Structures are given as structure tokens and as C-alpha cells.
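User: My collaborator sent over this chain with a note saying "see what the structure looks like." That's all I know about it. Can you take a look?
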Amino acid sequence: MRNLTEPRPLSVWAALGVKLKTGGSLPKANVPASLARVDRHTYLVYANFEALLAYNCAHTYALSVALLADRIR
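Assistant: Without extra context I'll predict from the sequence alone. Here is the result:
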């Protein structure tokens, strides 16, 4: 099951009050993003998250890969 919202521009999410984990504002970019619910947490994810789900439709897998990639970067 894909617990994702429909993609919306970051400006829409910002207008709805979504902020970075640090409390800061979202980037000012015209990038579509979805909210993904994994366990008790909600994450703002981009199209690459969907690509990970296409390979393995498990949110914990996709989130693990995405968080690992962020740490490596």
C-alpha cells in the first residue's frame, strides 16, 4: 500500500504549514512533493521516493534508502 498524498508544489505544502524538521521554511523551488506516512512519522518526499517504491513497494525500505542517501551526501 502506498501511503502517499498526491504530489503538490512545495509552495502549497509551505502554505499549509509544512516545515523542515529543524523548523525552518521549505525551499523555494517549484518541485512536486508528497507526504508519506511511515510508522508514526510523516515525511515530505520527492519523485525519487516513488522510484524506490517502484523497485520495492515497502515504505520502510524506501525511507531507509532515502535517509541513508541523505547521510552519505
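A starting point for your reply to your collaborator: The CA atoms of residues 18 and 24 lie 9 Å apart.
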